[in-house]
Amino acid sequence: MSTTDEEASISTRLEPENYGLTTAEDIRRRDREAKESKRLSDTWRKIQGEDDWAGLMDPMDPVLRSELIRYGEMAQACYDAFDFDPFSKYCGSCRFTRRHLFDSLGILDSGYEVARYLYATSNINLPNFFSKSRWSKVWSKNANWMGYVAVSDDDEATRCRLGRRDIAIAWRGTVTRLEWIADLKDFLKPVSGNGFRCPDAAVKAESGFLDLYTDKDTSCNFSKFSAREQVLTEVKRLVERYGDEEEEELSITVTGHSLGGALAVLSAYDVAEMGLNRTRKGKVIPVTAFTYGGPRVGNIRFKERIEELGVKVLRVVNEHDVVAKSPGLFLNERAPQALMKLAGGLPWCYSHVGEILPLDHQKSPFLKPTVDLSTAHNLEALLHLLDGYHGKGKRFVLSSGRDPALVNKASDFLKDHFMVPPYWRQDANKGMVRNTDGRWIQPDRIRADDHHAPDIHQLLTQLHHPSQLL
């Protein structure tokens, strides 16, 4: 075979239509027509789970798919912006300032402004989750950046597209290291013991998740307040500012992948339990959690309490992902009801919450069919699967043209004949820059405005004493 023939053969194998990019154009056309006829601004309450997504997942509603990908990308931003490099003095922090997060990641026209960064103390027993620098002089010895709170902006195009103002909370999880699962104590404890305003001591959550969410280090500027205190006070501030706008409705959407999915469920529940989704005029703001590859968080009473509070949860999972089956590997919602009733009080009897959208990476012609624990848990792979999912038993056809190369950003999951290098996302020169003297250095990062909240003490006082909310 000549070189030209071989190149033509390779080109043919890589043609998009052979892998679902432009095949079944009628499917994509129907998707576009359905999306155009049913705008998000008109249907956002259903997309946020008003009817528990009945009839929207099979066949897959194109507006719901688009929103799941969008909120998934908000969670992915937590990975793309995180400094994982142990040779960086800023390891464990965000690489970008709050005001420029989305622009720095190339997420242009996001329609959101980051209102606050979230931090947690690493002084808890999750050594395989937290990242720490090897250097002695570091930005913080005991804190890690955990995500952010953002709010949709005042741009007319954003308001028309969303149909409301949206407060979005995004939590960081884990990219490839799954050892944190083994670190979990796999032990349920009452949420009321961690300061939650819960009237029922039978409502329990996994102790490691609770510790991560509620612990603080008063000696550290970044984790002086717990992640819980940071997120609740910011939600309170934003609801007070926007909750009673006459011409605009408000929603609260929480997103996260992996362990970040657990924090998303926990914080969504907490916001509702604290009554922060009620405005001063008594208007109820819908609270929704979109999680990706998230683990079980609490017991069956925790699940029931979330339902009582009206919090909606949609879990997007890869059927081959072990994280979505943990903790509670044996005693969970799939066990016989009689057994669950007997074991309900045990500290390792778990239950998933909300609705599930199960996906299968073996249905994608782009991905390797082998089951590897870390790749099956990959968020970019989940977003790729969402893009090609049209319903149970339906053909895998990419809908938005989202680049499959993103899957290999932090994994080796794409089939080799696509010739996309694994783990291709790298910082130029490992973040080193040349100064005016021609020397290579790690530049300082301005962080002052990324955690400073002058009114947090007052807001916390009001949270602890509800009478002061009036």
From TrEMBL:
GO terms for biological process: lipid catabolic process. It comes from the Eukaryota. It is found in: Plastid, Chloroplast. Keywords: Chloroplast, Hydrolase, Lipid degradation, Lipid metabolism, Plastid, Transit peptide. Residues 1-35 are annotated as: Disordered. InterPro entries: AB_hydrolase_fold, Fungal_lipase-type. Residues 25-35 have a biased composition (Basic and acidic residues). Belongs to the AB hydrolase superfamily. Lipase family. This is Fungal lipase-type domain-containing protein. It comes from Arabidopsis arenosa.
